[in-house]
Specification:
mainly alpha
């Protein structure tokens, strides 16, 4: 079976889709942070998960696949996804967006280091550690928020678990249905503690509730749909290279919308983690490639 070839125009469109999805994701996170005073971090997780589940279920028409067996299959995946978003928003309430995303990015990096045995991994691990030191070092009298750091590292752990669970269901369920049904499971789990109180608050401020729908669209539904289209025309390596730039796009979105200008050392820390991620993607793989039917970089 021959590998499909794509024109330069199609590949450029795929690159634009990945970049556009990445920017949507980070700008959506910025707007979510602006809504924290109204709904709180937990409330925003509930609203984002709830509205994103509805949007994805409608887009992929996943209600046809609902069964007890399927829901049990995607439950760990959806739980990891929801917990990742929950801890990410808790960290975002205490840390700048660029720092939060860079710390969260260590989850996939550590998972990559565990599954490979290459001499170059020592270099990339050292670069990651250097990036963390630069990100977390105190600047003048301002000490880093250790609770926020813990939340970001918990989000990183959940991201790694998400990747593992996504690989476990790859090939067993179409990726669009897996994501939408996983999001549905997550929405059900957090509905009472997170979504219902936020919806009640939103009834009194419908404009902000409408913005939360936009956050769900930008942070979950639209990036995932764009990435799904792009992955059909890009190799796994090309897709990984582009996704490695996510901390940079987060720092850009944070600076533009939240006025969170990173200092030079912290900007260098973000770039170190980006370079480590690029290195793990670009170096030749010795291990057997695994089939991936679902995305490995959600938010």
């Amino acid at each position: 079976m021959s590998t499909p070839t794509f024109s330069v125009r199609e590949r450029l469109a795929a690159l634009a889709q990945v970049t556009g999805g990445m920017l949507c994701l980070q700008f959506g996170s910025s707007y979510a942070k602006l809504l924290f005073p109204a709904f709180g971090a937990a409330g925003m997780v509930g609203l984002r998960t709830f509205f994103a589940a509805i949007i994805l279920m409608v887009f992929y028409r996943s209600w046809h696949a609902i069964s007890r067996k399927v829901l049990l299959l995607v439950l760990p995946y959806g739980l990891a996804l929801t917990c990742m978003n929950y801890f990410f928003y808790l960290a975002l309430g205490r840390l700048p967006l660029g720092t939060t995303v860079a710390l969260e990015f260590t989850g996939p990096l550590v998972l990559s280091f565990i599954h490979t045995r290459r001499w170059s991994d020592v270099v990339w691990t050292s670069l990651t550690v250097l990036g963390l030191v630069l990100l977390l070092r105190p600047e003048s009298a301002i000490r880093p928020d250790f609770v926020g750091i813990i939340f970001a590292l918990l989000a990183a752990t959940c991201w790694a678990l998400y990747i593992i669970f996504a690989r476990n269901i790859a090939g067993k369920l179409p990726s669009g249905q897996a994501c939408s049904l996983g999001m549905l499971c997550g929405a059900g789990i957090v509905f009472i503690p997170c979504t219902a109180p936020a919806l009640w608050t939103g009834l009194h401020i419908p404009t902000l509730l409408g913005v939360s729908v936009l956050v769900a669209l930008c942070s979950s539904a639209l990036p995932y749909a764009l990435e799904m289209q792009a992955m059909q025309k890009l190799s796994a390596r090309e897709f990984g290279v582009l996704c490695s730039l996510e901390p940079v796009s987060a720092a850009l979105a944070g600076a533009m919308l939240l006025h969170e200008i990173p200092s030079l050392p912290r900007l260098c820390g973000i770039l170190c983690i980006v370079l480590a991620s690029l290195g793990t993607v670009l170096m030749p793989q010795r291990s057997k490639p695994t089939a991936q039917d679902g995305p490995v970089l959600p938010e």
